[in-house]
Amino acid sequence: MKTTIINFKTEKSVKEKAQKIAEQMGLNLTDVMNVYLRDFINKKELNIRIEEPTEETAKDIMIALREIKEGKKSPTFNDVDVAVKWLDKESKKYAN
C-alpha cells in the first residue's frame, strides 16, 4: 500500500486532546484520521454531531450578536483575498 502525508493545521489543544483520547483507545492520530477519511469516501458525506456550544463558543456568539446590534457587520465580498485583507486590517469599516 502506497501512502502519502497530509499536513493540516489545528489548534494545539485540539491535537493534544485528540491524541490523549486516541491513546486511551489504543490508536494514534493517523489511525483516527484514516477512519474518518475512509468513512468520508464511502459515504460521500460529512457526519458532524452538533451539541450544545462550549462556554467559549457561547461567549463568542453573544459578542457577535452584540456587534451585529451595534451595526458592526462585515461588507459583502466577491473575492476571498479582499475579504482576508479586510479581516487583517485593525480599523475595519463595517457595512450598515
Could you list some keywords that capture this structure?
96 residues; mainly alpha; 4 helices; 54% helix
Unreliable spans: none
Mind describing the biggest β-sheet?
none
In round numbers, the mean pLDDT is: 88
Give a count of the beta strands, DSSP E runs of length 2 or more.
0
> Helix fraction?
40-55%
Shape: elongated
- Strand residue percentage: under 5%
The radius of gyration is 19 Å
Structural class assignment: mainly alpha
Instruction: List the helices and strands in order.
Output: HHHH
Ends distance: 56 Å
Write down the oligomeric state. single chain
Please count the helical segments.
4
Question: What does this entry look like structurally?
Answer:
The protein has 96 residues and is mostly helical. Among the domains are: 12-43, no CATH class; 55-88, no CATH class. It is built from 4 helices and no strands. The protein has helices spanning 12-24, 29-43, 55-69, 80-88. The longest helix has 15 residues, at 29-43. The radius of gyration is 19 Å and the shape is elongated. The termini are far apart. The mean pLDDT is 88.
Brief synopsis:
The chain has four helices and no strands. It is an all-alpha fold and 96 residues long.
Q: How are the SSEs ordered, and which strands pair?
A:
Blueprint: H1 12-24, H2 29-43, H3 55-69, H4 80-88
